[in-house]
Amino acid sequence: TIASAIYRVGVRLNMRFRHYWAAIAAWLAAGGAQGAAEERQDPAAIKAAVQTYALRETKDLPGRVQLDIRLSEGRLNLAPCAALEPVLASGSRWAGKANVAVRCVAGASWTIYVPVHVSVLGRYVVAARTIAANQPIETADLMFQSGDLSQIGPGAITAMERATGKSLTVGLAAGQPLRQEALRSSIVMQQGQSVK
Fold first, then answer.
1. Phi then psi for 69, rounded to 5 degrees?
2. Which helix (H) or strand (E) holds 68?
3. Angle, CA of 91, 96 and 99, to the nearest 5°
4. Residue 99: pLDDT above 90?
5. What is the DSSP string of 121-156?
6. H/E segment holding residue 113
């Protein structure tokens, strides 16, 4: 390398100044190592791309979204990329544990999967008391509870008016969350109406 050649020349020229030549060689070697480190993809850029993408995709979720992007920067050894393209990995959804595939589309050819823990903090509707199946739901039967909507699952009811006047397909104990798939429109019969 250049650093070792300079060192050998320095030793031949003057043995008294060899420690100066050693310092110059070490300085050049450190600069070369720094240059090699700069030829790797910046993990902060990947993390920022995932965060921007995830916030854009979750902006319409009910509640406040919190992201925990779990990129292991220590083991990341990727070629530099000029353009990153994040996309939700197949089989993932924006609740709980998700994976975002980040693909380099300019400058290199690689794909990395970044684990993201998604929490959606908000209010959801639960049964204030036991509600029997087929019983019309009244406002007094319901109350709000706060928590992580991603732990409840899809279809959680977040507005009481979406459940009031409907009935449940199965009974529900007090404190259990209401889900959209468990609701159906109540059948209202008028006096004198014929039943088919």
1. -85, 120
2. strand 64-69
3. 45
4. yes
5. EEEEEEESS-B-TTPPP-GGGEEEEEEEHHHH-TTB
6. strand 111-127
